Amino acid sequence: MNGPGKIKAVIRFNFLGFFKNTRIILTFLLAVVLCFLLSERVIRVAEHYETSMQAAEPFIWTFGDGTNVLLASLLLILMFSDVPKAGPVTPFYLARMKRMQWMAAQFFYIALGTILYAAFIMSVTIILCQKYTFPGNIWSETAVRLAYSELGDSMGIPASVKAMESITPYECMLQTLVLILFYSWTLCFLMLAVNLRFGRTKGIFAGIFYSLYGFLLEPDIIARILGLEKHERYKVNVLTGWISPLNHASYPGHSFGYDKLPTIFQSSVLFLVLLAVLGLLSCRALKRYNFTFMGY
């Protein structure tokens, strides 16, 4: 079996019994509950004004908010708390392949598992709101009400005038999904690197700390702590927009040619650089990692 074939075999082993794992089942069940709670505000607006929404808008507005992205990503700490995955067959694979090939399989396992999770929360959000949506690729009357008035801000729904003027709903949904994936990958790759270097418990704490770091750098949180007025928040918004991974994962927190915030492309490049660094750290930690298989 060649190198790619060996990597595929380990990936298949990692996914073996994936949907029978109690921890995975619990993660997806909690994701359904989370999507239900987070999308409630969007549904309430559509019901109150008796207006429809474009099919992509509930997902864009629900997970265009940094706090909601944070809440969704926290479930990934539960989902990937056991990476790197090792089982009774692991010694068999390690004796027949290079450690770096085994590590590549771990990377692909995390990447594919995260894609599956992100696609799931997107699908659940769309399904929950389908009674009020239409498929056409144009912004809805509900979007207009939220974006061009203070209704969106008052309800915490990030409907963006800048987005509506520059992109279609489905394109916006795709970009929102990509940003969530990048943020989730950095969280999971950080856990993997710390698990390899310091042990599994430390990896979980690293994931929690990474999430807490992003939450504390939310512009509204900093503004309340410093007691800033609304007109004084611009510099804080720009600063946190660049140094906070969570703000990079928030679609409305980007520049559309009007300000000094990062663009979607710049955020993507920064996430890729961070992923590359975490990948290198994981590979270095693997060289000193002692595999133990007691209890299997």
UniProtKB/TrEMBL annotation:
The keyword Signal does not apply. Keywords: Membrane, Transmembrane, Transmembrane helix. The chain crosses the membrane at residues 21-39, 59-81, 102-128, 173-192, 204-226, 264-286. The keyword Transmembrane applies. It comes from the Bacteria. This is ABC-2 family transporter protein. It comes from Blautia hominis. The lineage of its organism: Bacteria, Bacillati, Bacillota, Clostridia, Lachnospirales.
